[in-house]
Amino acid sequence: MTAPLTLANLIDGRQQEPRAGRYLDVFEPAIGAVFARCPDSDAADVDAAVAAAQRAAPDWAATPAEQRAQLLNRLADLVERDLDDLARLESRDSGKPVQLARSLDIPRAVANLRFFAAAITQWPGEAHPMDGRAINYTLRQPLGVVACISPWNLPLYLFTWKIAPALAAGNAVVAKPSEVTPCTAARLGELAIEAGFPSGVLNIVHGNGPQVGQALVEHAQVKAISFTGSTKTGAAIAAAAAPKFKKLSLEMGGKNPAIVFADADLSDANLDTIVRSGFANQGEICLCGSRLLVERSIYDDFKECYLERVRALRVGDPNAAASDLGALVSKAHFDKVTACIERARTDGGHVLCGGDAVRVDGRCADGWFVAPTVIEGLPNDSVTNQEEIFGPVVTLIPFDGEDEAIAIANGTGYGLAASLWTSNLDRAHRVAAKLEFGIAWINCWLLRDLRTPFGGVKNSGVGREGGVEALRFFTEPKNICIRL
Ligand code: NAD
Questions:
Q1: Which of 102, 299, 461, 479 is the most exposed place for a label (fewest CB within 10 A)?
Q2: Count H helices, E strands: the chain?
Q3: ipTM entry
Q4: Which residue in 28, 90, 179, 251 is the catalytic one?
């Protein structure tokens, strides 16, 4: 048996052990066993990281954008060089199929770094002339030290989505990846040293949320917090940050609808995308459509085609090329998802396919696998249709006409993303405009342009990431008015 991989914090340009010498176990979900140890850091490590970031911040802010961009691009090159290793590590850490990590997670991490490297050099200035009397121009200056806190579902993808704009805009960063999937962020820390980032510009502190995350959020020198994770944690962060008047960006949970109208083009490719929108990454993507609303006139036919495709999805060893779904990220999450399915049954839901854990033979016999599950017969106000499950579970809900579709779609406390499927362009625009979600996809899903505003409304989020929204978040505008 090989010794577990031991991860380190990145503080002040060096790999460092946690000051108290404690570690957390990191599990490989596909086999249900420990494979790594991650620093169980505490407030002392956070203090050291923030102090290092504070020392680095003035020089980094004064570094020309072009040079900051060069370093981000160098880091992207290194991630690309190590793409296969990182993909295997991501898969091992999270349970997702290695194919998915290779085609989605790691390439997207590269794209995030490259995108913000380009964006910062292309960011136009703003000026407001006052009819010959005066001219205003706006400086957008870095904030100083900022915190980036990310979740376990798309570990390197979401980690880089935050640190890239923060660094590009000239801030020094203290980042905290999820303790559930810390491995690729730790590896990125090593690559940042290799890329030549100045000491203290990027710091990565591992550990438990309530310990390290909370210390980071409360730290007096941390000027802004960019958080992605659950709504419950987002609320705790907002409560801690509000009295200190910190800038906050919160990307949180969802209960997203996918709406299929009777006039939708249900080609094979579109049906495949609708299936993928529910089950990609085992349903552990905040953008997955977990409520599938189907117009009643096509409900039975659609259900048949849909179930046929869902039943064909293969759950298995994440290393196997044939696996469409891997393991759920942890035993705790496996227990949560299976309990949600049980509750749906108890509440009168009819499980049309899946509904159980899956036993995978061989090395994955002790892994945490759940079959893709489709449930019908529950009203929209049921717990199953209101609370985020964040697993491979989709409910089918029939509707009659546009108004009812919109009412059901909006009938949730969340508002992250919706997708709708129709051949009627007028309807597409009309419905999209009425959906109370930050993102609406028409006849597609997860088609992402990194320039667009990304985020949710209601309990799904505050603020937007992506493009100039992220650069604005990570800078303070200062207006300068000159009398002419
Ligand atoms: P989580 O809230 O448990 O943890 C997210 C991060 O916050 C982790 O790094 C964790 O250690 C840290 N944390 C926990 N408690 C903290 C505290 N008190 N102070 C500071 N930091 C703390 O979320 P998770 O289980 O890792 O991720 C799943 C959730 O993330 C789901 O709800 C999902 O919808 C959401 N998510 C949202 C988006 C989006 O863009 N809106 C994207 C991905 C995931």
A1: 479
A2: 16, 25
A3: 0.98
A4: 251
